[in-house]
Structure formats: C-alpha cells, structure tokens
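Troubleshooting: if your tokenizer reports a length mismatch, compare your output against this known-good record of 271 residues.
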Amino acid sequence: MQLPSLQMPVFPPGWVWLTGAGPGDPGLLTLHAVNALNQADVVIYDALVGEAILACARPGALLEYAGKRGGKPSPKQRDISLRLVELAQQGKRVLRLKGGDPFVFGRGAEEALSLREAGIPFRVIPGISAGVGGLAYAGIPLTHRDTNSCVTFLTGHNASGEVPDSVDWAAMVRASPVLVIYMAIKHLDILVSKLRHAGLAGERPAALVSHATLPEMRVLRSNLDRIVADAETARVEPPALLVVGEVVDLHALFGSSDLQARLAPPCPIAI
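Known-good structure output:
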C-alpha cells in the first residue's frame, strides 16, 4: 500500500527516533512508526517487538536486540542508552523500537534524557499502550459510564524488579474504581495482597490478559480472592496485565476481538 498523499517526516542521519511499536499486533503500528522502519539504518528493539513488526524494516537495516525480560540475562539500561548515542554519533538513523508506548513504563524517558545529555537530536513517536489496545482486544473497556469515570495505570515492579514501595495503595484504591497493572505476573500474589489490605473486597472482579493483541492472547476472568490460584491453574504466562474493577464483567458481553485469532502476515505497508 502506497500512501503518497501523506507528507511523512524524513529521518535525518545522526538522529534517534524513540518509537512505540504498540502492544504486538502489527496492525496497531502507527504510520509514523512504519515510516521510521522504512528509513532507519539501525533498529534497536525490545523483547516484546515481534518478527512481523521487524519485517517492516527496510532491506539492509541492522536489527539489534536489546530486550529486557524479568529473570533473564539482559543488557543494562545504561548500555542501551550508550549504544544509541554511539550509533547516532556514527551518523546512523537509529530507531529505538519499544513495545507499547515509549513513555508508558517503557524507559523511554531515561533514554531521552541520555540522548539530551549527549547532544543527540531525537524524536518521540507515541505508540498504543497495552493497557489501552490490549484491553480493547480482550473485550474489557477501560471506562463505562455505569462503572467508572477514571482509571489508574501502574507497574507491577520497579527498576529493581520489586513491587513499587512508593505507591499509596489505600489512596489509589479509594480514588480509582479501575486499576490496570502492567507486568503483573511476577508478583501477582503480593499485588493482590496489597489491594486486599488497601480495602478492596475479595469479590472484586479481576482479569489477567496475557500476550495482549497477539494470536496467543488469553483472558482469564476471576476475582481478587481467586485470581492467584486461577492463574497458577491456567498457567498464565507473562507478559500479562492485571485488570481490577467492574469493567471486567463486560468481557462476558463483548468477548475477545477476533483479530487475535489471525496470524499476522509480513508487513505490506511502505510509505
């Protein structure tokens, strides 16, 4: 598909574009992300960026893995940032491709600050976050007028890999009727315990969405009292989102998107 009527930006040599690849389905790439893939000399990509998305890169582009997965050997964040600087200083067009949105629990801000300190010009290209696109595919709306007028996003672990200790769980539970917790599997039992101690009832609807938007996506509906045991029984694998709130019950009405059952073909779009 050619889109000649769109005046897309030129990727200058020596620049780094911090780009969100979306939650996994290649169809959720933005046109700016595809444009970047079509021009980049080097693509530094994360663990959650799949082969179908990488197939959008221009022929001859260097694809360099820089994924970070919990409990597995992975490059240090400082080394990734230094690599971006090094490649840009060589005059390369460097695409830093991150799952979801680079500024939503994606360490994009850390990389942007490193680039700024090194005097490297950069651009930020937003992406669809898993907490938005993934839940839509799972048939769980973030908001509904009969259930909630706000939603809170938080991460299941901080930079050290532990549950964040800076969260006022009681205040958060009082303020937000719907919670979406990224990277929830590793410390699921601790997260649920904190929510229960913060005042949420055990009957509160809860769901885990694993591999959101991908063909292997799974949605496990439960409640706070049962979700840990149910996840173990169902062998829910990361990456997974934990969703807590009445909107979870709407999954029974909407179901999951049929798109998640379709295998994604190689990227056909060129800009």
